[in-house]
Design goal:
By secondary structure, the protein is an alpha/beta fold. It is built from eight helices and eight strands, in the order βββααβαβαααααβββ. It folds into two domains: 2-111, Nucleotidyltransferase, domain 5, CATH 3.30.420.10; 118-209, first zn-finger domain of poly(adp-ribose) polymerase-1 (2-Layer Sandwich). The chain has a five-stranded mixed β-sheet. The longest helix is centred in the first third of the chain and has 17 residues, at 47-63.
Length: 219
């Protein structure tokens, strides 16, 4: 049996992972809907739904779907075009809530993808609901001009909250439990910091290092 699911469709940051998996063998195929499909023009045309269909078509050909093989597909809107494709090609499927094993695999793949975009590993591990819109918005505003290009800018929520007035100033941070949302590293107690304030659905205060420490990579 084949499972089809997505991850990241509700994340402000990054594209959307689309994947299918054959439960019996673990064979799988993943693709990602690029961010360009989420700019304002393309998002209105819902071109991302067509690209999701392309990924599934490629995946079905790659793993060689059996003539009578059963398919379970996520019941969400992301697969509206895929369901049409399956029906046209006389592929038997059920729209269901996808569980294991694909759910965990594809969610982990999406997490690794966002880490590759710069989202800190500790942000994902220790932030409650790390892919919640306003959680990610804080990360974006911590380095706005570099990170806005990583966002689904066609969303209405981005149109509303993606261009807010921001107050910036310098201060000393005496609390010892903060991490810099720019570099992801801990801010030492009584350190000089840059402060970023804005109001979205609530007041937000972001602390970042005055100068983010240099990260030395192992050779």
């Amino acid at each position: 049996m084949i499972q089809i699911d997505d991850a990241g469709s509700g994340s402000l940051v990054g594209g959307t992972y689309i994947g299918l998996l054959r439960i019996e063998t673990g064979e799988h195929y993943f693709g990602i809907i690029p961010l360009k499909f989420y700019n304002e023009c393309n998002f209105k045309k819902k071109l991302y739904l067509q690209y999701a269909c392309k990924i599934i078509d490629d995946g079905i050909k790659k793993i060689k779907l059996g003539d009578r093989e059963k398919v379970q597909i996520c019941q969400g809107y992301m697969f509206d075009e895929v369901r049409k494709y399956l029906s046209i090609n006389n592929i038997d499927f059920d729209s269901v809530k996808i569980g294991e094993p694909l759910q965990t695999i594809i969610e982990k793949a999406f997490e690794n993808y966002t880490i590759s975009l710069g989202l800190p590993d500790n942000f994902i591990k220790y932030t409650k609901y790390p892919f919640h819109f306003h959680r990610l918005l804080r990360w974006v505003y911590a380095d706005y001009y570099n990170r806005k290009k990583l966002c689904k800018t066609g969303w209405k929520s981005w149109q509303k909250y993606g261009h807010l007035n921001v107050e910036k100033y310098s201060d000393i941070l005496y609390n010892k439990n903060y991490y810099c949302l720019k570099c992801g590293r801990k801010i030492l107690q009584a350190s000089p910091v840059n402060v970023i304030k804005y109001f979205s659905n609530m007041p937000n205060t972001i602390y970042i290092h005055k100068r983010c420490p240099q990260v030395f990579l192992n050779p």
